[in-house]
């Protein structure tokens, strides 16, 4: 997961409330269940002395939001500047997480969030397309009609050649698809979505592809779940989107595991693990990918600047810095990685790093 999506958090003011819970909306009493879940979250935050304004911001974000479709998880982070992160999670959270801390807690988003908060869904046929831009839990919808008509061949016979109705129909369809392609190119240039999901019957999807610019086509994932006007079940759409993001997540974990294992095996110095090694790499700005395992309740220390992070006071003193903060490692290390532009990966059983933390490095440290 790229660090740019967390840049607002890295530049915001704390302390922070970090909330993760199952917000599935797949039962008759789902609305009542959401109210009960919110009350439990509110009580937990109050016990942790979270400010009333932070609790109020979370209440509006949770209770006023449109309900999820089917099984879903939700992650929110709020601070002095209001709601800073509000995301759908591709997997429901089994055990709710509610923290009020000096730093935001990012690990559940890294593990369960979509790899990118911006993506596009376009439902296309030869008459045009319905396009929705999903960005930061907001949805912007538009319909594109290139003005090409007719799009259906007339039943009556006409003279072949210049007036051939089939030729006019094909050209009208191509014109409409070119208009869709042009709109998608603008969306890529303006918002840089990670994925463009294309929905529609096979021929429409097939005819759209040659009209796309390379920078658009390389982001396309086709979903075979229905056609534009003959209809499809919206309940099938989000799971299909989530499956693609999950596939990408697993691929990213696999790539990080391979890089870490190879660097460790070769002794190239391009990987490190454990609190000592990772803290040193973060201080040097050398981390390319932070690999997060089970850190548990481990803590680290830092001076006034988070990037002076160290595993203990002795290491920090050797660096000539007085420790002014004791922080949870699972909060401090991911945020320090974000501030140095590193990618974040939540590992699985493929890697079990020392102290639950490892890193692939940009360059070997002395």
List the helices and strands and how they pair.
Elements: H1 7-10, E1 16-22, H2 30-47, H3 52-63, E2 73-79, E3 82-89, E4 97-101, H4 107-112, E5 118-125, E6 128-135, E7 138-144, H5 165-191, E8 195-199, H6 202-208, H7 214-217, E9 220-223, H8 234-266, E10 271-273, H9 274-283, E11 287-292, E12 299-302, H10 313-318, E13 325-328, H11 329-339, E14 343-346, E15 357-361
Parallel strand pairs: 5-8, 8-9, 11-14
Antiparallel strand pairs: 1-2, 1-4, 2-3, 5-6, 6-7, 10-15, 11-15, 12-13
Write up this protein:
The strands form four sheets. The protein has a five-stranded mixed β-sheet with strand order 7-6-5-8-9. Strands 3-2-1-4 form a four-stranded antiparallel β-sheet. Strands 10-15-11-14 form a four-stranded mixed β-sheet, with helices on both faces. The chain has helices at residues 7-10, 30-47, 52-63, 107-112, 165-191, 202-208, 214-217, 234-266, 274-283, 313-318, 329-339; strands spanning 16-22, 73-79, 82-89, 97-101, 118-125, 128-135, 138-144, 195-199, 220-223, 271-273, 287-292, 299-302, 325-328, 343-346, 357-361. Residues 148-162 have low confidence and may be disordered. The radius of gyration is 25 Å and the shape is globular. It folds into three domains: 3-112, Translation, Eukaryotic Peptide Chain Release Factor Subunit 1, Chain A, CATH 3.30.960; 118-150 and 162-232, Nucleotidyltransferase, domain 5, CATH 3.30.420; 250-361, 60s Ribosomal Protein L30, Chain: A, CATH 3.30.1330. It has 366 residues and is α+β, with helices and mostly antiparallel strands. The two termini are 28 Å apart.
């Amino acid at each position: 997961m790229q660090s740019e999506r967390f840049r607002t958090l890295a530049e915001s003011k704390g302390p922070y409330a970090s909330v993760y819970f199952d917000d599935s909306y797949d039962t008759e009493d789902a609305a009542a269940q959401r109210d009960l879940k919110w009350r439990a979250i509110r009580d937990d935050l109050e016990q942790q002395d979270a400010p009333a304004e932070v609790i109020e911001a979370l209440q509006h974000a949770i209770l006023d939001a449109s309900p999820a479709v089917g099984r879903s998880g939700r992650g929110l982070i709020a601070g002095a500047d209001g709601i800073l992160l509000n995301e759908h999670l591709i997997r429901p959270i089994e055990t709710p997480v509610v923290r009020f801390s000096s730093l935001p807690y990012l690990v559940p988003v890294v593990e369960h969030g979509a790899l990118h908060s911006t993506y596009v869904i376009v439902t296309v046929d030869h008459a045009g397309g319905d396009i929705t831009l999903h960005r930061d839990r907001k949805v912007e919808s538009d319909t594109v009609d290139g003005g090409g008509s007719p799009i259906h061949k007339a039943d009556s016979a006409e003279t072949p050649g210049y007036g051939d109705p089939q030729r006019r129909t094909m050209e009208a369809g191509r014109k409409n698809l070119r208009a869709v392609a042009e709109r998608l190119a603008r969306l890529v240039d303006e918002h840089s979505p990670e994925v463009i999901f294309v929905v529609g019957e096979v021929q429409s999807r097939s005819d759209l592809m040659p009209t796309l610019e390379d920078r658009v086509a390389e982001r396309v994932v086709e979903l075979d779940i229905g056609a534009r006007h003959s209809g499809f079940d919206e309940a099938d759409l989000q799971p299909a989107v989530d499956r693609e993001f999950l596939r990408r997540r697993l691929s990213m974990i696999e790539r990080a595991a391979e890089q870490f294992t190879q660097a460790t095996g070769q002794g190239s110095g391009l990987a490190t693990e454990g609190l000592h090694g990772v803290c040193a790499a973060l201080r040097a700005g050398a981390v390319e990918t932070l690999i997060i395992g089970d850190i548990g309740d481990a803590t680290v220390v830092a001076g006034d600047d988070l990037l002076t992070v160290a595993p203990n006071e002795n290491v920090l003193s050797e660096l000539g810095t007085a420790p002014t903060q004791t922080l949870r490692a699972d909060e401090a290390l991911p945020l320090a990685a974000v501030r140095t532009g590193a990618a974040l990966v939540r590992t699985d059983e493929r890697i079990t790093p020392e102290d639950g933390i490892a890193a692939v490095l940009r360059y070997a440290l002395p």
